[in-house]
Each structure stands twice: as C-alpha cells, then as structure tokens.
Write a structure and sequence with these properties.
Elements (H helix, E strand, L loop, with lengths): L3 E6 L6 H10 L5 E7 L10 H11 L6 E6 L3 H8 L3 E6 L2 H17 L4 E6 L9 H9 L19
Parallel strand pairs: 1-2, 1-4, 2-3, 4-5
The structure holds adenosine-5'-diphosphate.
Adenosine-5'-diphosphate (ADP) binds next to α1 and β4.
Length: 156
C-alpha cells in the first residue's frame, strides 16, 4: 500500500515557506497530494484555478506530488485519496495552538489519520501568503517570497 500524505491549505498564493515544507516531506512519503481547500468563509485573492496552476508549475518536475481541489472535511478528502497522513507546517507558538486543536479534532474524526508537523525553516518563519498578497496590493515585487519557478508569474 502507498504511504500517502495530504498537505491541505489555502495556498493564496503558494510561498517559499509552503514549498520548503513540501520538498522536505518528499523523502518520507510515496505520494503527496496538495489539497487546495475551497473555503466558503475565507475570501481568497486568487481563484482556485489560478492557485492550482501555480502549485503545478512549482512542482513540475516532482512526480510524487499532485494537486487537487477539495471541499468539506480534510479527513474525508484524505480518505478519498487513500492518504493516511496530513502534513502541516509550524512557524510560531500561535500556529502550534491552532494546529493542535485541528489535529486533535481530526484524530477524533478519523483514528487512522496521523498529522505530522514540520517546523518552518528559520528563513521562512515570518513568511505567509498574506505578506505576498500585501506586497502585490501595493505594487511591490514578491519574487523573493514565492517559488523560483514562479518568478515574475505571480501578479494581480
Ligand atoms: P491554511 O489556510 O490552512 O492556514 P495556508 O496556505 O495558510 O493554509 O497554510 C497551509 C500550511 O502551510 C499550514 O500548515 C501552515 O502552517 C503552513 N505554512 C504556511 N506558511 C509557512 C511557512 N512560511 N513555513 C512553514 N509552514 C508554513
């Protein structure tokens, strides 16, 4: 049986922080499915289609990585994909508190799914998608914060 993991998130847009976690997870799993959550309550800057396209472009040469859109519970998405692991990143203690409750609830919802956490690389601890969105909103260049493959591609 495949040892597959889902990396769920909004990826609005994908950053070097996300990319770093995913690249570090590759040796641990046969397959990683990046799940772009369509969340009705969270307004996004970029369409799901655009977010997926940028993720594909980032991992063009990584056959173990695929991208899918999902609605609803992450544990249901994992079951549909045949994945038994959820990957999440931890930057700060605030991330930890947030992730702990989600991880513990997911464990109650499905005992067979384990959440694994990656500490952010120090250089990406301050990075999140909203920083990239703010740079774009104010006409700046976000290239230093988004994957190399997306250089000059992420625009409003
Ligand atoms: P969500 O809306 O689920 O928080 P995000 O796209 O913001 O989705 O993040 C998805 C995952 O990536 C989360 O686990 C988040 O902690 C992690 N992550 C985001 N930015 C970084 C970063 N700079 N370093 C490490 N992990 C990160």
């Amino acid at each position: 049986m495949d040892n597959s993991a889902v990396f769920p998130g909004s990826f609005d847009p994908i950053t070097r922080g996300h990319e770093n976690v995913i690249l570090r997870a590759i040796p641990l799993f046969d397959k990683i499915i990046i799940g772009v959550g369509e969340n009705a309550e969270k307004r996004s800057m970029f369409t799901v289609r655009q977010r997926v396209e940028w993720i594909r472009q980032t991992f063009l040469h990584q056959p173990a990585i695929s991208v899918e859109v999902y609605n609803g519970l992450t544990v249901d998405f994992c079951r549909n994909c045949g994945a038994t692991y959820i990957i999440r990143g931890l930057r700060t203690s605030a991330d930890f508190e947030f992730e702990r409750s989600i991880g513990q609830v997911n464990k109650v919802l499905d005992q067979g799914i384990e959440t694994v956490f990656f500490l952010s690389a120090p250089e990406y601890t301050a990075l999140n998608s909203s920083i990239v969105r703010d740079i774009l909103k104010h006409g700046g260049n976000p290239d230093k914060f988004v994957p190399q493959n997306l250089k000059s591609l992420i625009k409003l």
